[in-house]
Amino acid sequence: MSRVFVAGSINMDVVATAGRHPRIGETVTGNAVRYFPGGKGANQAVAAAKLGAPTTLIGRIGKDAFGDQLKAFLAAQGVDVAYLRETAEAHTGTAIITVANADNTIVVIPGANALVDAADIAVSNLAKGDIAVSQFEIPLPAISAFFKRARAAGATTILNPAPAIEFDSAMLDLVDILILNESELGLLAKTGLLDTDDHARLIGAVRSLPTKDRIICVTLGRRGVLALVNDEPVFIPGHAVKAVDTTGAGDCFVGAVAAQLADGQSIEAALDFANAAASICVQRMGAGPSMPTAAEVGAALSTSSRPPSGTHNHRR
Ligand code: ATP
Ligand code: RIB
Questions:
Q1: Is 296 in contact with 256 (CB distance < 8 Å)?
Q2: pLDDT at 196
């Protein structure tokens, strides 16, 4: 099996649950406050490691209690933390999250994540066949350096451009597989998109990007995932489950795709597997601790009932 390298953020998620979200200027009384390991990079690394891929996380934490707890959690999930750097210059990344009716709002305070630089990336011993994964919660120059290194080594690069920000098209040139949700696609394609938009509109937006041979996967929440592979649309319907907290669903999806590709699976099989993995994640509270094992995903795939859908369904 090849290896997965994730360069990305590590956060402590401070999660308040409530019956509903407050409106701006309003105070609501919540139910509970809980602390969950999170951060897009850490979540994706945990997902890949729990699914069986040898996984290394490159990133930064502060020299503080959150940093210690997160490092211990990551190691316990089987993530290689040898390339995690502790820095006294900033606190560990923190996300303030409210969850109500399974939906969330998130404010991220990057802290140490904002200090990840090209020198941190340089320590990674990427090799041909490895999978290099990143997202937008660490500085863009560090991601570029990471992907350049990955490309030079013959690794496959996966970018999850989340949270959505404007970025230079030179970054896209370094990407083999783009995994994003509909609002991130909308920002890139310069058009407003909803996860309820029809496939033709979403694929039209995907085709408007400078795609070349790139694989582009659009996650659509409960609707599943729509991808463009070899210029062919592939749609995999979502699993019908009761979501309690969708935080980290996109990260679970990305980590699962990376783990499957590292295991030599086709992209179509990887998307099907990741769709099932993420449907398990949304049934659990928190991000990092919600990532499933391969056995759990296998069980979900064998018992799932998925809604029928029209276009180019991929079936296992
Ligand atoms: P987040 O930012 O909350 O992590 P996201 O917007 O990046 O999420 P989504 O498209 O919401 O990502 O979800 C990613 C994947 O998770 C979906 O493609 C699907 O496989 C799964 N998923 C999400 N929500 C549900 C749901 N309610 N039921 C079943 N599967 C879901
Ligand atoms: O994608 C979910 C993650 O985004 C959370 O764990 C939070 O830390 C924010 O980074």
A1: no
A2: 86
